[in-house]
C-alpha cells in the first residue's frame, strides 16, 4: 500500500520561503520518481518539480531558480524548498510518486500554500 503525507504549507509574504515535505510509506519510495504538482483555484493541476531515485531533477519553467527539490532516501522523504515566493505560487501543492517523472501513480492529500502580504 502506498501512502504519501505532505506537510509544511502555510501563509507567507511575497519574497518569503517555505519548505514542503512529503513522507512516503509502504512501497511508494520504491517508485522511481517523486515530485510535486500544484493547483490554483480555477486552474488545472500543473507539474512543479520532480526527482528520480538517482537524483535527476526537473522543474517547471515558472519555478526554475527559485524552487529546489531534494530527497532523503534514508527518511523516505521528498522536500520542496521554495524561495522568492510570488502571489502566483498560491495553490494547493500535491506530492506524487510514480515510475517516471510527471506520471503519478499515487498522490498525497495536498497542502495549501498562500503567498500574500
Structural features, described:
With 117 residues, the protein is an all-beta fold. 0% of the residues lie in helices and 57% in strands. The protein is built from no helices and eleven strands. The protein has strands at 2-7, 10-12, 18-26, 33-39, 46-52, 57-59, 67-72, 77-82, 91-100, 103-107, 111-115. Strands 2, 4, 5, 6, 9, 10 and 11 form a seven-stranded mixed sheet that branches. Strand 5 and strand 6 form a beta hairpin. The radius of gyration is 13 Å and the shape is globular. The relative contact order is 0.32.
Characteristics:
117 residues, single chain, mainly beta, seven-stranded mixed beta sheet, four-stranded antiparallel beta sheet
Biggest β-sheet strands, sense, barrel: 7 strands, mixed
Spans of at least 5 consecutive residues whose pLDDT stays below 50 are none
Give the strand content.
over 45%
**Count of DSSP H/I helices:** 0
Q: Supply Rg.
A: 13 Å
Concise synopsis of the structure shown:
The protein has strands spanning 2-7, 10-12, 18-26, 33-39, 46-52, 57-59, 67-72, 77-82, 91-100, 103-107, 111-115.
Layout of secondary structure:
Elements lengths: L1 E6 L2 E3 L5 E9 L6 E7 L6 E7 L4 E3 L7 E6 L4 E6 L8 E10 L2 E5 L3 E5 L2
Parallel strand pairs: 2-11
Antiparallel strand pairs: 1-3, 3-8, 4-5, 4-9, 5-6, 7-8, 9-10, 9-11
